[in-house]
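Annex B. Sample input.
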Amino acid sequence: MITRRDFMKVLGGGFASAMAIGGYAFAFEPLARLNVTRYELTPPGWTPGLKLRVIALADIHACEPWMSARRIASICERANALGGDIIVLLGDYASGMNLVTRYVHSSEWSKALSTLQATLGVHAIMGNHDWWEDRNAQRNGGGETFGHRALAEVGIPVYSNRALRLEKDGFGFWIAGLEDQLALLPGKKWKRSTMGGLDDLGGTLAQVTDEAPVILLAHEPDIFPTVPPRVSLTLSGHTHGGQVRFIGHSPVVPSRLGDRYAYGHIVEEERNLIVSGGLGCSIAPVRFGVPPEIVVADLG
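Annex B, continued. Sample output.
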């Protein structure tokens, strides 16, 4: 028979454990950890002899105290040390939550990102929060956000349904970047009844003029079922791995496809997708089982 004293011990132990887990998820994993997650693959149709290291940063969500300009600069320093041929930024630079002490201005986070260096340059796309936090862009229903302008001002090209051919060691490949799939919010003040996307997959891939492999940058991974086999690799962010992940499963994922594209390397019908767990937090500053990460993809 359990005594009151025994019961209180169990209750106290459970409370202490909950507090420890909560403290880890709220304070340690989002702020103190930074993983480098590596993938090695040779996608179907990849050019023999082409070896390419792609560094991907996603979902920065600049704000204090969680993702200050100083911390972004530190992450960039770590990314530079990884020796990437190319660095890609997968969107969501703007904060996506209210639990902050200060919002980091686009001029600050873009200046930190300008320290990134790679032989074949740094290439960016926008994310949904970059659109959602810009009232003028919402009112206009398109055009540029403050994020587009901030990155352009520091010399980082932003791909808005655009493809560009690059070369390494005489071998060509394409970077194709989509505009955001959830860019335009619904609401009476915007005169829209549904969420609107500004992505144009067909128009973007129509710019590819030869058989060189294509790397597609798409903030949300939900587009992957419609990506043709012509694309060697799709790189996405947005999900943050669910921010809470247990034994390979994320209970809550901001995707109409649930856990299907929550995190990691996914292969479907010989098509390859890598979804980054991202760096910052959205809605709440909590991460558990999916720490902030820099993605390194070694291709070929």
